[in-house]
């Protein structure tokens, strides 16, 4: 029987992460020295390969491992995986040279269809044994959010051909997509894997408590989208809905973190000390994400973020390079899908922390009118280079490991 090589799958995912990280360094070099290329085009390639190459492939591979690795569905999955990689490679070799144009749009559209086929594959084939578990309910919700987020890209074509890319609807479509990727598909998907971990370690969340948590979480995820509309000076009801979304999320995560603290000894005993440490750091970064998101419910901070690109970049990297990627490292290491060397992890963490400090420093300097030190951009390039070095280290170790 044909089997999916999930270790090879995740080596490909981490390879995309390396490419995205190298493109990120290339983007930062634009501020240091003359660089051949179009900044905006390379930015498109960087963001698409980071979100769709690394995070999407890592998450979908883990979901397959949790629910299907002992089934006879490998052939269907491999076809979807192959088509997904064709779309990713198409985006990788078209975006840097033409930005959003015919070829890149074709491959982006192919990716959307691949994601739909993957979602249908999971929803149709999940066994009854799994479908009633807390982890499966969260992962199903995450997949629906991923599909829902694609309304944004579909709307962009119509908006660009009618209203143009200067319309507020253009930005709202982008924000809609990013919100339901970062704050729904990624977040809820990772929580689903966390609840699978609870299940394997026999840590019972409780059916009634989970139902309450699930309702709070999903209501908060949906309503907090309205935070992304504050920059348009919308009607008062939008501010109220966004604020309510934040309150619901705070209640949901208070419940989750209180549960984790009560059961931390069981988590410690069920995980290696290294995996436990990565998850705890990821959890701290998640708290930071929630607090920053909560601040954006206050119009002053919403306007500040909209008018200061460094705060937005810092937040997006905090979520992507911090909370999301660290959680994926921990889960991949725990499931033995990738080996994460300790030294490589700490090099990565150092690059992440220092680069985030520099990005938020620049945002504060521009906001408060403080003096700006020389060679900032060169230092940012050198510090950020620790990230692709660490990711390349992880990839190399796993390629050499038999």
UniProtKB/TrEMBL annotation:
Keywords: Membrane, Transmembrane, Transmembrane helix. It comes from the Bacteria. The chain crosses the membrane at residues 12-31, 51-68, 77-95, 101-121, 142-160, 180-198, 210-231, 237-262, 274-292, 312-335, 347-370, 376-400. The keyword Transmembrane helix applies. This is Cytochrome C and Quinol oxidase polypeptide I.
């Amino acid at each position: 029987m044909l089997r999916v090589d999930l270790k090879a799958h995740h080596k490909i995912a981490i390879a995309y992460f390396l490419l995205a990280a190298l493109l990120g360094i290339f983007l930062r070099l634009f501020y240091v020295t003359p660089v051949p290329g179009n900044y905006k085009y390379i930015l498109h390639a960087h963001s698409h390969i980071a979100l769709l190459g690394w995070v999407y492939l890592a998450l979908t591979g883990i979901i397959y491992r949790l629910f299907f690795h002992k089934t006879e569905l490998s052939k269907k999955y491999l076809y979807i995986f192959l088509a997904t990689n064709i779309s990713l490679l198409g985006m990788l070799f078209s975006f840097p040279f033409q930005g959003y144009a015919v070829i890149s749009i074709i491959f982006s559209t192919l990716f959307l269809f691949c994601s739909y086929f993957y979602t249908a594959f999971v929803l149709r084939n999940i066994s009854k044994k799994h479908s009633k578990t807390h982890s499966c309910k969260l992962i199903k919700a995450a997949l629906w959010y991923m599909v829902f987020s694609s309304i944004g890209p579909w709307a962009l074509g119509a908006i660009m051909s009618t209203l143009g890319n200067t319309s507020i609807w253009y930005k709202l479509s982008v924000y809609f997509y990013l919100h339901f990727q970062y704050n729904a598909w990624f977040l809820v998907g990772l929580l689903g894997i966390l609840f699978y971990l609870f299940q394997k370690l026999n840590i019972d969340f409780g059916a009634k408590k989970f139902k309450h948590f699930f309702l709070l979480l999903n209501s908060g995820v949906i309503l907090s989208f309205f935070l992304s509309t504050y920059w348009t000076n919308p009607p008062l009801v939008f501010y109220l809905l966004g604020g309510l979304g934040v309150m619901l999320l705070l209640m949901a995560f208070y419940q989750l973190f209180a549960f984790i603290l009560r059961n931390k000894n069981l988590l410690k005993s069920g995980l290696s000390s290294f995996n436990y440490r990565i998850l705890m750091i990821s959890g701290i970064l998640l708290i930071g994400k929630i607090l920053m998101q909560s601040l954006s419910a206050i119009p002053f901070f919403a306007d500040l973020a909209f008018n200061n690109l460094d705060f937005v970049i810092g937040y997006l990297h905090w979520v992507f390079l911090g909370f999301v990627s660290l959680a994926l490292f921990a889960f991949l290491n725990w499931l033995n899908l990738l080996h994460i060397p300790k030294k490589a992890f700490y090099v990565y963490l150092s690059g992440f922390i220092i680069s985030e400090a520099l990005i938020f420093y620049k945002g504060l300097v521009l906001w408060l009118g403080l003096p700006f030190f020389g060679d900032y951009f060169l230092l940012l390039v050198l510090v950020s280079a620790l990230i692709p070095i660490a990711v390349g280290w992880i990839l190399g170790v796993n390629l050499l490991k038999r």
